[in-house]
Specification:
Two copies of one chain form a homodimer.
Chain A lengths: L15 E13 L4 E7 L2 E7 L2 H8 L6 E10 L7 E10 L20 H6 L1 H4 L3 H22 L4 E2 L5 E2 L11 E4 L2 E5 L4 H11 L1 E9 L12 E10 L4 H22 L1 H6 L13 E3 H8 L10 H15 L3 E5 L12 E2 L2 E5 L1 E6 L2 E9 L3 H10 L8 H8 L5 E7 H9 L20
Parallel strand pairs in A: 6-10, 12-13
Antiparallel strand pairs in A: 1-2, 1-4, 2-3, 4-5, 7-9, 8-9, 10-11, 11-18, 13-16, 14-15, 16-17, 17-18
Helix pairs in contact in A: 4-6, 4-12, 8-9
């Protein structure tokens, strides 16, 4: 008999079926026992009245893997309106050791560090699994949106000879006797690939040797990177970002609807055009001194609130960040060269995306590096491509875990990461 | 005026349009000059008769980025039957330095090492770009097939505290003062995630410190990993693998049809059921001694030939590899415990995929490690999940670059890798 998932039971009332999964919970009442079996699709209630089956179920601790053959019976009070009656229960492995916290309660009561220490079982809790399903759907929406716009997916090196952004916060390793580094971003490679495909994206791990412990930083995270050529300026990039986020949210709504319901979420709407303010205006709105070189988290929160009340938008672009605060490959605003054609996107008052137009002329790169007192040699392989013709281009990067954390309202990005890596955590 | 791609010109005969791209080639004849512009979609022939425009074009070396405004004119001898006439040509950047090899010739004449040294420009050659488009389409087909079967995409750590498969061939790094390793595979994590989602996949980089230089090994490659629970045995895994490869080939045919045509490929057919032979039978077919513990490359070639002539199949499963040659988590064949429920898939006589059923009972893991004289402690975080209930499961991993190389007939996997990493190569 073919196994079916719990979500298909309601279409099979009266039939004898086989389900399989984990013992989620047992409730041993005086006259009847309930066995709740959890599978990938949800929960199945199994009603046990036979004394021999009851004895068998009593000996199966939570998380034991079992299969159940029984009759699908309508019951308005059971999950999805059906339950299995007259069951035969067979374990598919030895009795499990119960996990160190109850997975059947509505919320995990264990502290986050305990959950992370026991991630393989903590992730089985429906709330933790739901966040990861939302992440998977968001990435699917990211790709679908870009595929439809002729972007090509690329896979680039994660071990590099030169640190990408600066000398700080990189992991060093030995590469067959040569010094090497884990890539902090695919920035250089996605730019180079604009020379090949014009429009590219990559979904992959990036590594930051963050020396401090915060609720929004990980030492490895999943970066959703986009780069496109033949732009007029950063506004073309912002338009693609808007559509990409809209596609991500739409796919979360479509593919992860169960997860969204499990977490009781209201997904944000996406304006046809995301409101945008220049950095100088953002400082004014945030009540910051006009000579501040960057936005502090408190400023971002104020701006998020402003976007919500003024524009009814969960999203806000801040454009024109000062060049002094952006990496050397950033394209300046031709009209105000102290400001950049770079932007951040705030989502509910938190920086979610950084992007902008890049330099595309070889002499501009040489000048930018010289102005920062940086040598050219470490960037030789990267800069060489610009000698051979590169179009005006730009791009952005979305941190997947940060996006999901903000979407589900998680206070700590580790709540939505399967196996986080940070200053203290290298296992499991 | 909105820029259009070269592929859209044939629908716009008579119109004035704007195209943009790279100067692919110039042919300066006595009475007329031809400018060939390359964009993401292909080539556009621009006919130049005006002396001033001709002078401008003469000053634009190959790979200079230009935009051209002109009239779409039918010409049966031009690419796609159309060309641009009466053009205005404007560079979008400084004149390019011509690349060290001609990109406009049908094949790159530079040696592979030279191409790899200059990858950002070599990849612009239509043949090199085509292989990467095929890779992107194959990955899209991989995901689409698995998404349709309720698999969930996961992202797992690439830095781990314990080497996955054995102590050899790992890259070591310093993780905030602790020893750590680059992950050789997501094997343990995908198994753990079977406990959460039952069916998972991951597309991501894996790292092997391969100490020798071969045409089929890279130190970083893209692994397409699958794992699924509630299987009867390895044959359920093989069925999913067959469907996944069929989906990959179908998406290559659909999405990368232009690339397939550029390379003049005939894609392999996929049998409804891939022929399978047991390891002992494979030795006999290959003419190897019956006590050989593994298949040598020459044996694999013989088997590939046999599958083609006997079954008309480019694919062949070899099942039941000896346990002694498989990793400790491999499930034995219950009927013949010296042989495994593990398999390899040969594609045109080359090992492409390794997979099988895994152990799922905690005591079996302890026994397997003890039998190999391996300590339990380094695997504690992994093994713990099996104490808490895991279903019978199995999976497989496809090396993306190796698949594409075999598909396009590349002799060296580096020909189909954008920026390969190996014993000697850490840049660009």
């Amino acid at each position: 008999m073919q196994r079916i998932l719990s979500s298909h039971l309601s279409t099979r009332v009266g039939a004898t079926v086989r389900v399989a999964g984990w013992v989620h919970r047992r409730r041993l009442l005086r006259s009847v026992a309930f066995l709740i079996v959890r599978d990938a699709a949800g929960l199945t209630q199994v009603v046990v009245t036979d004394p021999a089956v009851r004895a068998a179920v009593t000996a199966l601790p939570e998380e034991t893997v079992v299969e159940v053959v029984g009759t699908v019976t309508a019951n308005g009070t059971a999950p999805a309106g059906v339950e299995l009656t007259g069951p035969a229960v067979r374990p598919l492995g030895p009795p499990a050791v119960p996990p160190p916290f109850d997975l059947y309660r509505p919320a995990l009561t264990a502290t986050l560090p305990t959950q992370l220490d026991h991630a393989p079982v903590a992730l089985r809790h429906p709330s933790r699994a739901a966040a990861l399903r939302i992440a998977a759907a968001a990435v699917a929406g990211f790709r679908a949106t870009l595929d439809a716009r002729d972007f090509v997916e690329v896979h680039t090196p994660k071990v590099v000879a030169t640190s990408t952004e600066s000398g700080a916060d990189v992991f060093a390793l030995d590469w067959f006797g040569r010094p090497a580094y884990l890539a902090q971003s695919p920035q250089f490679y996605k730019q180079l690939m604009v020379g090949v495909f014009e429009r590219v994206y990559e979904v992959g791990p990036v590594f930051r040797a963050e020396p401090h412990d915060t609720v929004r930083h990980l030492a490895q995270y999943t970066s959703l990177d986009v780069e496109l050529g033949f732009v007029d300026d950063h506004r073309d990039v912002m338009a693609v970002l808007r559509d990409t986020l809209a596609g991500m949210l739409a796919e979360v709504a479509r593919r992860a609807d169960g997860a969204v319901a499990t977490l009781g979420l209201t997904l944000p709407g996406m304006p046809v055009e995301i409101p945008a303010v220049h950095f100088t205006e953002a400082l004014r709105i945030a009540g910051a001194p006009p000579d501040e070189p960057d936005l502090a988290p408190a400023h971002e929160r104020t701006l998020g609130e402003w976007a919500r009340t003024t524009h009814g938008s969960d999203f806000l672009f801040v454009t024109g960040y000062p060049m002094a605060k952006r990496p050397f490959y950033t394209h300046p605003d031709p009209a105000r060269p102290a400001y950049s054609n770079g932007f951040d996107l705030l989502f509910r008052g938190l920086e979610l995306v950084t992007g902008g137009q890049r330099l595309h002329r070889h002499p501009d790169y040489l000048a930018a590096l010289a102005a920062r007192g940086e040598p050219v040699e470490p960037y030789a392989g990267y800069l060489d491509a610009f000698r051979h013709g590169m179009p005006p281009h730009g791009g952005f990067a979305v941190g997947l875990e940060r996006f999901v954390a903000r979407l589900v309202g998680a206070a700590n990005v580790r709540e939505v990461t399967a196996f986080p890596r940070d200053l203290h955590r290298l296992t499991p």
